[in-house]
Design brief:
The protein has 9 helices and 5 strands, in the order αβααββααααββαα. With about 230 residues, it is mainly α. The protein has a single domain, classed as Winged helix-like DNA-binding domain superfamily/Winged helix DNA-binding domain (Arc Repressor Mutant, subunit A, Orthogonal Bundle). The strands form 2 sheets. The chain has a 3-stranded antiparallel sheet with strand order 1-3-2. Strands 4-5 form a two-stranded antiparallel ribbon. A hairpin with an 8-residue loop joins β2 and β3. The chain is globular and about 60 Å long. The relative contact order is 0.15.
Length: about 230
């Protein structure tokens, strides 16, 4: 069985952001470094919210490339380097499977209901049983050379449902936090590179997120208008 690559918190955020934009805004994918930084620092659909800069994201990209999980895209009409993920190819994943992995990378451990409710833009699951079956395939891979990518956590005290977590970072505890046995608590990779969110930072990040969403909607409207116009040509 091939060993599962282990990521730190920033690598996980970068990989999750690349997968998300691949599935939700394909017209703007692969991503430039600036677009990827903005995607990593989004205020919505991220837990925890991070404030990463280009140096931290660049280092994470270098490590993901060493693990064959990210590539640099060059050439074409643009001189700007762009970046793409290779998670589907490396882990042999279907769109439903990579959608759930993406959510777990971006938001941490979640219940089947939370995963279904948050996955709509990437993949529309028929029902909770569909989500459960997909998680089962991620936990018990058909290819014996592929290790499990998710695990079901024991139900935490005071909660009604168990949560699923991905296995690309340190194994999470029942509370959802990652830990290593026989090691004292230490500052995480996120703590090393994140800073308190000022009001200006929050406002700017929200504007950037809104701007990306408006661009996506405009592209959809243009495509629909072109299709409508062709009917009369």
């Amino acid at each position: 069985m091939n060993p599962l690559p282990q990521l730190d918190a920033i690598e996980a955020r970068v990989l999750g952001a690349l997968i998300e934009k691949d599935l939700t805004t394909p017209d703007y994918y692969p991503l430039s470094l600036n677009a990827l930084v903005n995607a990593c620092n989004q205020l919505n659909n991220r837990e925890p919210v991070m404030t990463l800069g280009e140096p931290e994201v660049t280092r994470a990209l270098d490590k993901l490339r060493d693990k064959r999980l990210a590539v640099v895209i060059t050439g074409g009409d643009s001189r700007v380097l762009k970046f793409a993920h290779k998670a589907r190819e490396v882990f042999e994943l279907s769109r439903p499977e990579v959608s759930l992995l993406c959510l777990l990378l971006l938001r941490g451990p979640q219940t089947t209901g939370e995963l279904r409710g948050r996955s709509g833009r990437m993949h529309e699951f028929a029902d909770l049983a569909d989500v459960q079956a997909t998680l089962g395939r991620l936990a018990n891979r058909e290819n014996p050379d592929q290790p499990a990518l998710v695990t079901l956590l024991p139900r935490a005290p005071g909660t009604k449902e168990s949560r699923y977590a991905h296995l690309l970072t340190d194994p999470p505890t029942p509370s959802g936090r990652a830990s290593r046995p026989d090691e004292p608590p230490a500052a995480s990779a996120v703590d090393s590179y994140s800073a308190p969110l000022s009001s200006d930072t929050v406002h700017l990040a929200q504007l950037e997120s809104d701007n990306a969403e408006l661009k996506r909607q405009l592209a959809d409207l243009r495509r629909e208008f072109d299709e409508f116009r062709k009917k009369f040509e």
